[in-house]
Amino acid sequence: MKKQIFLFFLINLIILELVGFFLPLSAGLHLGLMLAVAVCATLIFTFFVWRFSKKLALIQKKVHQINVANDDTHLILPNDDPLHGLTHELNQLQSHIKHQSHRTLRQENERETLVKHLPIGVMVIDRYGQVQVANDVIQELFQHEFDPIPHAYQQDIVQPELLTMVNAAMQRQKSGQRLITFDTPQNRKNIRVQVLYSEIRPKHFQVTVLLTDVSDLVAMSKMQSDFVANASHELKTPITAISGFSETLLEQPTDEKTREKFLTIIKQESDKLVKLIDDILSLSRLRDDQPGDLKLQQIHLADFVSDQLDDHQASAQLKSVKLENNVPADLIVTSDEGRLRGILYNLLANAIKYNDDGGHVTVAATSTFAGWQLSVSDNGIGIPTNQQQRIFERFYRGDNGKTIPGTGLGLAIVAEQAAQLSGSINVTSELGVGTTIKIDFPNDN
Ligand code: ADP
After folding, report:
1. 34 pocket-lining for ligand 1 (C-beta < 6 Å)
2. CA distances from 115 to 133, 248, 391 (A)
3. Within 10 A of 33 (CB to CB), how many other CB atoms are there?
């Protein structure tokens, strides 16, 4: 700046010298006047330059603030100032940048929250093979905490099939998906893996790994196919018997006694078939039920149990089994009558069926801290300890009852209906001593 002022002073002197050349002044006066005018002009010039550079310094500070600092005060200059337009544009630019950076930050937060709370595992790998994003679900599936700073994906992905898929995406731009089994110390999980290669812009790509736990779906579909296989098998046995015996009756001449014997078998097998189909239909209807389908109402339990026992009196009498109702007379429970009837029906049928002649069956109930408990006890043949956990499986028939007719679906129906009423089942049984099945129901199911 000093250099410019000195230059300005010299130019002034030269101009005044030229002007003085044409003016008729004495040499002394000429020099003095010339110096005085040059000094004054330079001082005025310096003042304006100083003011201008002060404003420029302010503008420079503003640009710096826009760049790095968080200060959002605006720079205001009078309307007639030559720098007014420039500062106005700068102020606008500052507001725009601030708005944009807020927006970017908000979007970034929204994206992070979304990825964090997604119920599937998400991992994003950049084109340099660095893990940029990994949510909690994926860390849980991999059974380790990820380094929060970007790092090579090989550090986290050790599962060979998944590693092959990610390598293919990174090196050959190949997306893919498949079902992979993940073994954790606790259990085995079926995971649907999707590895997606995506080009963000030319020569820039990222690889996204999505892991969805489909263990429940796989288990459900296995259960369904097992069910179909079991049901077909169970249906085939009586049908084969019916068809075989009726064919013999039709094709071969038989005496009256054999005829009656064959017809009795046909009748028994058709009854079995009807019971089996009824049970299968009950189970499939129960599967379709929605939680809202429950019809909760107050039930006077002792009366309700008494009605159910009446329905079983005939079959109990055939074996001289005594039925007892030990439900307190004043116990009122809130439940769904239909579900409760289904539960009691199957438990009572089993307690009579798997009982010895002259045995006892007792239905009892009590209020509990969290709700109420229903129990059906018998002093029948009992269930071997190693089979007690399996008796609620569909089509499972214990060794103890192989000679006793059944479908293996009664307790599966009980379990399904108890679950709909949020009940939890407990079995205690001893071979040759008897069986008690208790179900705890909450008050507010
Ligand atoms: P099902 O009685 O038609 O065989 P369930 O599902 O009702 O089918 O019962 C499954 C198995 O549990 C029975 O085959 C039997 O072995 C056993 N079980 C159920 N209830 C009793 C009971 N009260 N006493 C002894 N065994 C029982």
Report:
1. no
2. 9, 69, 43
3. 15
Q: Element (H or E) spanning 162, and its range?
A: helix 160-172
- Do residues 130 and 152 lie in contact, with contact meaning Cβ atoms separated by under 8 Å? yes
Phi, psi of 48, deg, nearest 5: -65, -40
Q: Which of ligand 1's atoms lies nearest the C-alpha of 279?
A: 3
Indicate whether residue 420 lines ligand 1 (CB < 6 A).
Answer: no
Q: Is 405 or 402 the better-scoring residue by pLDDT?
A: 405
Nearest CA to ligand 1 atom 26: 383
DSSP string over 64-121 = HHHHT----PPP---TTSTTHHHHHHHHHHHHHHHHHHHHHHHHHHHHHHHHHH-SSE
**C-alpha closest to that of 419 among 357, 343, 351:** 343
364: three-class secondary structure by DSSP: strand
Q: Which residue of 323, 411, 425, 429 sits with most ligand 1 atoms within 8 Å of its CB, as the best mutation to test the pocket?
A: 411
CA-to-CA dists, residue 170 to 155, 159, 367, 388, 434, angstroms: 15, 16, 63, 52, 64
Does the Cβ of 391 fall within 6 Å of ligand 1? yes
pLDDT at 336 over 80: yes
Nearest CA, atom 19, ligand 1: 350
Query: Residue 438: what are its φ and ψ, rounded to 5°?
Result: -115, 140
What is the rounded distance in angstroms from the CA atom of residue 79 to the CA atom of residue 81?
6
Cα–Cα distance, 417 to 114 (Å, whole number):
37
Nearest CA to ligand 1 atom 2: 406
Question: Does any ligand 1 atom lie closer than 6 A to the CB of residue 359?
Answer: no
| Smallest CA separation from ligand 1 atom 20, residue | 350
* pLDDT tens for each residue of 301-314: 999 999 999 999 99
- pLDDT tens column, 90-111: 888 888 888 898 999 999 899 8
